[in-house]
Amino acid sequence: MTDQPTKQKLWGGRFTGKTDPLMHAFNQSLKYDQRMHAADIRGSIAHAKALRRVSLLTEEEEVKMTRGLDAVGREWATGQFQPAADDEDIHTANERRLSELIGSLGGKLHTGRSRNDQVATDMRLWLLGEVDDIESSLKGLVRIIVERADKERDILLPGYTHLQRGQPIRWSHFLLSHAFSFRNDLERLQQLIPRISVLPLGSGALAGNPFSIDREFLAKELGFTSLAENSMWGVGDRDFIVEFLMWSSLTMTHMSRLAEDLIIYSTAEFGFVTLSDAYSTGSSMMPQKKNPDSLELLRGKSGRIFGNMAGFMMTLKGLPSTYNKDLQEDKEPLFDTVDNISASLKIAEGVIATMEVHGERMQQALTMDVLATDLADYLVRKGVPFRETHHVSGRAVALAEARKCQLNGLSVEDYKGLHEKFSDDVVEVFDFEASVERRTSIGGPSRKTLDRQIAVLRAALG
Length: 462
What we know:
By secondary structure, the chain is mainly α. The protein has helices spanning 21-27, 30-33, 37-53, 59-78, 90-102, 115-151, 171-196, 215-222, 231-236, 239-265, 293-316, 331-354, 359-364, 372-380, 386-402, 412-418, 432-437, 447-461; strands at 156-161, 164-170, 198-199, 226-227, 273-274, 356-357. The strands form three sheets. Strands 1-2 form a two-stranded antiparallel ribbon. Strands 3-4 form a two-stranded parallel sheet. Helix 3 (37-53) runs antiparallel to helix 8, helix 6 packs parallel to helix 12 (331-354) and helix 7 runs parallel beside helix 18 (447-461). The longest helix has 37 residues, at 115-151.
């Protein structure tokens, strides 16, 4: 005896046998794509209006269908929606429930529409909403960094290259260096939004809509800034997801580098910062431990998000044109990335806002060898070529090391013995504040240049 086909599946008419239960579970995406329920309802209401404009629905039918879709949306919003066993995805579930509420009229909703253009529309709508929240969170992170930098500009510390002390800088300069990376991330996200905001609806399965649906009306109704000019591209394009995953990977790379700096600075060996208890954890064995787990997780999430991007790129690279079921694999990496970068931005803002900064420990880390470049610059100002002054300064460092003293522990006569251009005013070199304040070119750590950096960042925040 032949099994009767299911009538719930949107493609069921072609088939005479039931789907293997394992295949149904393997194929089903409702468990994760139900988070797009509101976007799916919005797209369907707009589609119903477009059908009415070409007389495929009467005014009465459109009103009834729209009210039914609103009712389905409320069920999702209040947690009352009950998925059915045969619901493959959010589109099937919503249309099934609509038909239960308004009867056979629900069957007209899919006129001229394929799940191919429907899911592409839903994903773009959903992502646009999430990007708004992510943009706001990213601005919040930049803003708190800028505010701390503005208030804590008196604090000096060594700047590091190769994790070795290099030159004195302001703590504010360090903070703002990370803020500028996030400022660029903000710009890139804003540049990405128009490429997400492209309407696929009306592209059908691949060959467009046969009922002269007004796609410009649909774009306006749904708030898209443009529409897919080629229907095959419209249903098969997932570049907007790849771009978002790439953007997230780079943003989280910047997050990871900030986290790494602060992890190092929070160690007992440095002691520059202490994280709030709200963003730290302890050890199950060692009672003295205060671990920077928030920062370590931020560092770890960067690898996870990069993995989402790399994995989906491998899925995408071998696909033939238009829609293929492989594209169902776009949702979980996208959803996971959105969830994790959204949380990461908020956690990072909390960490920065609440951490305690120990300026005295930073000051103690400043040793006179970080002024070796200033010593070379002193001779440059007296007309000596830098390559020569670099060598002379290096000899001064070696002499101080041999005598087990700091550079300012050498006498003026010692310096005059190293080069004839040294004079009594060489002692003025050994001032960390003066060193920082001499660096007045745009981008430097002086108070004047910090004012400019802060103004640029605040302007970027709008």
